Amino acid sequence: MAEAVRHEEIEARVNRLQALMSKEGVHAFLVTQHVDLYYMTGSMQAGYAFIPATGAAVFYVRRSLERALQESAVRVQPLTSLRQFRAQLESDHPAVFSGRADGVRIAAELDVLPAATYAKLAEVLAGSANDCALVDGSSLIRRVRMVKSPWEVARIEDAARVVAEALEVSVGIIREGLTELELMARIEYEIRLRGHIGMMRTRSYNMEITTGMLGSGAAAAVPSAFDGPAGGLGLGPAFPQSTSRKAIGREEPILIDIGCCIDGYIIDQTRTAVIGSLPDDLAEAYAQSEAIIRQAEASMRPGTAPESIYADALKQAADAGLADHFMGFGTNQVKFLGHGIGLEVDEWPVLARGFGNPLEPGIVLAVEPKFTFPGRGVVGIENSYLITDAGCRQLTRSPEGLILLP
Amino acid sequence: MAEAVRHEEIEARVNRLQALMSKEGVHAFLVTQHVDLYYMTGSMQAGYAFIPATGAAVFYVRRSLERALQESAVRVQPLTSLRQFRAQLESDHPAVFSGRADGVRIAAELDVLPAATYAKLAEVLAGSANDCALVDGSSLIRRVRMVKSPWEVARIEDAARVVAEALEVSVGIIREGLTELELMARIEYEIRLRGHIGMMRTRSYNMEITTGMLGSGAAAAVPSAFDGPAGGLGLGPAFPQSTSRKAIGREEPILIDIGCCIDGYIIDQTRTAVIGSLPDDLAEAYAQSEAIIRQAEASMRPGTAPESIYADALKQAADAGLADHFMGFGTNQVKFLGHGIGLEVDEWPVLARGFGNPLEPGIVLAVEPKFTFPGRGVVGIENSYLITDAGCRQLTRSPEGLILLP
């Protein structure tokens, strides 16, 4: 069994959320999403966690109550009836509901909560008093989750070890004619044996990721709906991204952008391999991706704005004459250099315009400079880093450099 | 490359949705979810499909435009700016917006669309005229998707073949001491090699499924948040369902409830295996699960109400003295016998109370009678069936009966 989240850990998370809630004039948070529930209680059972701006949180559980009682670091109560939920909350948290002339403001994660469920919950919470607004608290919870504890970083490092081992074992099978799908299947088998939960959780609507993006040559360079620097041909119109059935050839880049999820925490890493050698211009572009990640490493520290790291990378790519190829090609370019990772693969902050709040210790970032050459392939590198007090520390463990295969 | 959806197929789907829209007084449907987009256009690129109650649908695509143009059976337009979207729609679909004294009713899938995105889209669609309501159309699209075409059934049959092959290859590795995770990893490897997209799509909020539920003995009988008859111990509090690291032992049931997704379509199948033999009472319960599925087969035909099939199964389980063990144990029982499958694993109808609309040809159902014995295990069977003009036809292909291993 995986190590359970410690009570002090959960208490610190709840306290940080409560501090943000008080600042934003939110009287309580109704946590609805399973990943947020796990983060805030230590348990992923079905129900709602109610966190008042001051006072103790309660996890109202539909099922399984037994498991929630074992797992949760906050008090567990059965959620017997949604119709009685408002009365139950008023009774358990009188300070939230009483004496508010301007009404009660309860936050939830409106970035993920379906509109129909939102409408139902808003009605339930308003009750007959009709004094309660259900407002968007997704930015609050994303800001809290953005900063990882040492306990969380240790989980991410476990995932980093698993991906490095899986990559090391799997590159050995690469030969001309092996299909992308055969290689991906092998990597997925290796990470699964080592405890990968079998999926990579994402937060964005319609965003899917299996274990990453593995593609070779022209197939890797095909654009897709996926909001990442490499799309990939995919398995057909019903899964039009990432790995395809294309056979891997000689002297074309093999992009191996893979992650895994161990004990709930995700790692993200990219390496580029080739059978034989890369054409000079692609080899040069790969070298540029390493140069850009070196520059990012030098600027990642508390106080740096994420958007400035992205701007620097754009300039570096342009200076190298690779502006059109950076992070996708032409109109299919994506507008970021990296992203937060943790329980989900698309966490905050993003290394992109609009992310001006300075980095702080505990943030974990996947940085993924890549260059796309339509009809030829994608080259690049991706490491994940922890922002420390003084700078950053790399969490991904696979050796860098092009992986040259005979 | 997978076979593309034919144009006539898409046209028929759009026509069926339009018929329902007209009946329900909906003037247009804004399709937002990637799976629904694939169903309604043949393409899963990012954007929105706008389907007027009469007239031609248009797929407004953000990215990748190139791929949407190749894949989509409905007309593709670039979606340049959300701010200009209302004007673009008015210009392309004047009949939807003009001369409506009571306002324009546009439907979307509010069962999956996040509340924050809903609010933004409602504002965009209302425009300055503020004459437009964004209403819930999820039941319309779920009703259309519920009835499969022969083309879709052929895809589901492809998935059924893959699962049967993977199971046949994988049971050969089962021996005392093999962990559930090792067995699951092998099955997943086999289905992936054969084209599984790497995930099983679900529609319900917070509902996750890897490739199913594989569990042995006591671990399989642990309840979970998952809305299925067997929960499973899982890999820890961050993935508290399905497969665990427990070693498989002798004379305990091994529940192998697995699916896969080929060209977007899902199959769902369960078999029960054992090393040695099962204790008499568990063997008897397994036999009851086959008896219940035989009874369901006899009643599955156009005209039968799904809820009556569930009621019959409850009675049959009670008559066998197994009421407390049926579809989970005690307070952790789930309240259904089966569910629709297709592009998602949790489709309509459900064989459960409240589903009174009679079955019709083209519905595909996974029927999964199971019995849970806390501390001992779960036994059962699951087949998937197509409702035909005369009755039903089984789509799953693995031989029935307990899988007895030496």
Automatic annotation (TrEMBL), chains A, B:
SUPFAM superfamilies: Creatinase/aminopeptidase, Creatinase/prolidase N-terminal domain. InterPro entries: Creatin/AminoP/Spt16_N, Creatinase/aminopeptidase-like, Creatinase_N, Pept_M24, Peptidase_M24B. Coiled coil: none annotated. Residues 155-389 form the Peptidase M24 domain. One of its GO terms (molecular function) is aminopeptidase activity. Keywords: Aminopeptidase, Hydrolase, Protease. This is Aminopeptidase P family protein. It comes from Paenibacillus montanisoli. The lineage of its organism: Bacteria, Bacillati, Bacillota, Bacilli, Bacillales.
